[in-house]
Amino acid sequence: MKIKTFATFILLAFALSMANGAAADGVNKRLRFARGKSSVVVSGAVVRGDRDTYTFGARAGQMLRLKIASNEKNAVFQIQDSGGNFLAGAGEGDDATNWSGELPTGGDYKIIVGGTRGNASYRMTVSIK
Hints:
Blueprint: H1 2-23, E1 28-30, E2 39-46, E3 52-58, E4 63-69, E5 75-80, E6 98-102, E7 107-115, E8 120-128
Parallel strand pairs: 1-3
Antiparallel strand pairs: 2-8, 3-7, 4-6, 4-8, 5-7
């Protein structure tokens, strides 16, 4: 009987760890702009150590304005172009909360949102013109 109880415990622990791993991956979503609109607002939350990723398409020369706000001022982002390069001022370690500038190339861009400490709830505005 003890072996059966132990095996059940191991299976339950494994199932719970897999469920936590699946939920901890963060968001991976493509941003959609409503017809006639040049901006979109996204609200979300990231668990410590995870990242939410938002993808959007743009043309070279378009202006991007990105701002993120969080109650505890602990949500930050990076912006990555289609080649995997980070934009100046919005790379790893920059802890960007506000960025605006001309996009150097056309294609898909990624906004990667994370927290600087603990969990982070955020509201992000993305504008392209």
